[in-house]
Amino acid sequence: MDIRNWIGLFLLGTINNLPYVIVTSAASTIADSFGKKNLIGLVFGANVALSAVVKAINGAFLLNVSYGIRYAVNACLMLIGLFGVAYAPSFWFSLVCIVFVGASAAFGENVALGYLRFFPSKMVNAWSSGTGMAGVLGSFIYITFGCVVGAGGDNLGKLRHLTQYAFLLTSPAVVVYLFSYFLLIRRPVERHEREPDHIQQDSEREPFLGEGQEGPPRIEDVSSSLAQLLDAKPPPETSLQRIWRCFKLVSWVSINLCAVYLFEYVAQGCAAKVRPKKEYNIGCPELYAGLSLCYQAGVFVSRSSVQMFQIRRVHILSILQFLNMLLWLIDVHYKFLPVAILPALMVYVGLLGGASYVNIFYLLLHDKAYPDTDRELCINIAALFITLGIITGTGVETLLFSTALKND
Asked: What gap in Å lies between CA 168 and CA 165, rounded to an integer?
């Protein structure tokens, strides 16, 4: 059962994030296929445009909706995005469809992370490892594009066809996505679901007022007991109060999630400017694409690591990633790091980011500091900070990437 569920959750993670990563990795190819290379930043922006919205909707309104319905809705969002980008008649129509791609990845992430609370602790590794694999596959496809055709000029038509084929070939994976949830994964039976009804009733039944006493209860005892019960009952908690309470519970790990994503996205953007322009667009893979693949490889390894060891002091990862970002920013200006060391440094960026992600959600899913009744809401709140970090980091990355298109 564990192997079967591990495979199913791994496939969910891979397919959920694959269209998103393909858009991110091939953003240059998509923009170039319409002759809009100077608008590549809009591709990045469209991919995260609705992420916070769909995550907020899931956390605020859909936690009581069945997972099956939410997975089916997400599959529809994914298909709309994939077919839309494949057959987009214009760059602007393509951007609208990319919004659906990004929304499906964000929505599916929150649904899956909430669903993981029903599984053994180490199963978070299956999902996170799958999302890491999506990054490696997406970068590989981008590199394939760069190796098969160049960029711009007479290659615009060829680029558009390759973009179409890439997204159409990805669309059948949505069937595997639904198969994984509905047929492959078997949710573990909880204790109260395994026990017969009469055992549950006996174990959960509390004695009524005066039960077990000899003779009828006295009126004074009944009145006193009722008064105690009424006095002890806390006032009902509103939805906003519950959200605020859960926010305070997850604020520290959420800030770390936001920070580590911001720092790693800035570091990735630096990869487009970290060497003189003459060293880019040479060979296969070219430098920027190769560094992107190194980053994704690091993410894949670290997101697959929680079964071997766990890190509770996640702020250390954020501090190390901040120092990493500073190194890349300084090198953008001075270009003192030799190109031979850059792949290892970019793997390090991915290792830190992936380790922060998997260890934080491992804590959120299984640490007793987070009540079981509020665990899914806590997860959804924390996941919103991923989007905040991505949006902020992508904005800086876009500026850096756009600058990299100019002459040094």
From this structure: 5
